[in-house]
Design goal:
This protein is an alpha/beta fold. The chain contains 19 helices and 12 strands. The chain has helices at residues 28-39, 77-82, 88-91, 104-124, 129-139, 141-156, 167-170, 174-183, 185-211, 229-233, 271-276, 280-292, 327-338, 354-363, 405-412, 415-425, 434-444, 454-457, 487-499; strands at residues 7-11, 44-46, 215-220, 248-252, 262-267, 295-298, 306-311, 321-324, 344-346, 367-370, 393-396, 449-453. Strand 1, helix 1 and strand 2 (44-46) form a beta-alpha-beta unit. The radius of gyration is 23 Å and the shape is globular.
């Protein structure tokens, strides 16, 4: 990743934008946020993965049934009306924009009805959009056709996992799939149309970001869910048995946070098969993400060097083992295709071995530093203390998996951590000042890029936390209020940015 000068930005997922339709989208609320970034001298907007989510995973953006498709819940009804796909009567009564949390059941029901109407308008009178729609289908056929087919078949079989489908569907029999495609042509076209709308609106937003000197940072989850179109269409890329069930699954070993480790349960890649195909699936995946975003963070980058392999029948991660990845071959193949330096940030949090750091140095990938972890031990050699950063780092107050700074300060931080923080900052830290104290610390650090979560800029507590790992409810729901982006917040953020020479 090429970083020029000292810059800063904000972490805020699309879903958290304060839109009028129950969930953040790619409409006017997104453009207003870009204006806010520009006015406060921020150069980066970081989001979480924008792939489809569902109720089975509590709408986690890190558990999707496609590595390529976009989340249609982010399609803006406002822009659909502007483009003639909906009328004002179609939109009807808007959902509340005042709630601080997303009601996914209501949002999905409301937007599904709107999308039915938008598709009917398009089908009956495509007008000037027919040509661009057909062009979109052609350019994205390598993933789009299978995705639309997968979603339609899942609907036919009541959303059951594809490994439980009838054999002809599970094994992608050409005759049965061709017959299904013909019989469900309208439904498949509608699924494709919604993807067209998502990517059309995203392209427009990205162009606006560029006009305001704002770069987009995206996020790529390293593993795919078993119940995904990617595993269904490319089972040879994963370590599966003859019934397409995983023989080994993903996770991380026991550590200071868990005596039994974490058993994530995703199928793990057959890296030798991927290498034989010159990593074509990964290249296609990253090519799409490099098109959507200016920079891409790879989640759990540790797994790109070595991954923890757990036998599928094990209930915990204890009895796993480390397996090597053909890392150098992989990234060299990427460099042949995309050229150096690759616009990648490595999520290198947790226990990271020297071989991972060596790969990051070799290929020029900046890593992450998180201030909420910096005060756990002594104040000399902890890698997340700013005096230990090299300039080629990205510093965060916290990530989407952390408590907010205020929530950490008031509820989770130990007395030892609080004493260390005050010693390091050389001041008494109060709840009303702790967020800006750590923001200033991040901004004044040697790291060329500082990213702050929107919740920390606003000084919000644990109620605004985005995700609590290892919990199954109450996550991915927080929403920003329009009134929160006040003139006072704008003045303070702009002043801190200018003072730290990040403007």
């Amino acid at each position: 990743m090429r970083m020029v000068g000292r810059k800063s930005g904000i972490l805020l997922h699309i879903s958290s934008l304060p839109c009028e339709f129950g969930i953040g989208d790619l409409g006017s609320c997104a453009y207003a946020f870009v204006d806010f970034l520009n006015e406060t001298k921020q150069h980066y907007w970081q989001v979480l993965p924008v792939n489809p989510t569902d109720s089975l995973s509590q709408h986690s953006p890190y558990s999707s049934h496609s590595a390529f498709a976009g989340n249609v819940l982010f399609i803006s009804p406002q822009l659909l009306s502007k483009d003639g796909f909906l009328t004002d009567q179609d939109v009807g009564e808007i959902l509340s924009s005042s709630s601080r949390h997303i009601d996914y059941v209501t949002v999905v029901s409301y937007k599904s009805g709107l999308y039915d109407k938008a598709y009917n308008h398009f089908k009956n009178d495509p007008g000037a959009y027919k040509k661009s729609f057909n062009q979109f289908r052609e350019e994205n056929a390598f993933w789009l056709n299978d995705y639309a087919l997968f979603v339609a078949i899942k609907k036919k079989f009541n959303e059951e996992i594809w490994t439980s489908w009838p054999e002809d569907f599970k094994k992608r029999g050409s005759d049965v799939l061709q017959k299904f495609t013909v019989e469900h042509e309208d439904e498949i076209t509608k699924i494709t149309f919604l993807q067209y709308l998502f990517f059309r609106q995203w392209e427009q937003l990205k162009a606006y970001c560029q006009s305001k000197n704002v770069s987009l940072i995206g996020d790529v989850a390293i593993y795919m869910h078993l119940d995904s179109v990617d595993v269904w269409t490319n089972p040879r890329n994963y370590q599966l048995d003859d019934n397409y069930c995983p023989t080994v699954v993903s996770g991380v070993p026991p550590d200071a946070f868990s005596d039994v480790g974490q058993r994530w349960g995703n199928p793990v890649y057959d890296w030798e098969e991927l290498r034989r195909e010159k990593f074509s699936w990964w290249i296609q995946r990253l090519e799409l993400n490099f098109h959507l975003f200016d920079v891409v963070r790879i989640d759990h980058f540790r797994g790109m060097v070595q991954y923890w392999e757990i036998p599928e029948n094990e209930q915990t991660a204890i009895n796993g083992k480390w397996r090597d990845v053909p890392t150098v071959d992989f990234f060299r193949e990427l460099e042949k295709y995309f050229a150096r330096p690759l616009p990648i940030i490595a999520e290198d949090l947790g226990h990271i071995t020297e071989d991972v750091h060596e790969v990051m140095r070799q290929f020029g990938f900046p890593g992450m530093k998180v201030l909420l972890f910096a005060f756990e031990n002594n104040l000399i050699d902890h890698p997340y203390l700013p005096h230990n950063y090299d300039s080629y780092s990205v510093v965060y107050t916290g990530t989407h998996d952390n408590n907010t700074v205020l929530g950490w300060f008031e509820n989770k931080a130990s007395e030892h951590e609080l004493n260390n923080m005050q010693t390091y900052l050389k001041k008494v830290v109060l709840s009303e000042s702790v967020c800006w104290d750590l923001i200033r610390l991040a901004f004044s650090s040697p790291a060329r890029l500082a990213i702050i979560s929107m919740q920390d800029i606003l000084g919000l507590g644990a109620e605004a936390r985005m995700n609590t790992p290892a919990t199954i409810s109450g996550n991915w729901m927080w929403r920003l209020g329009k009134e929160m982006l006040s003139p006072k917040v704008i003045r303070e953020l702009k002043a801190v940015t200018v003072d730290a020479h990040r403007a």
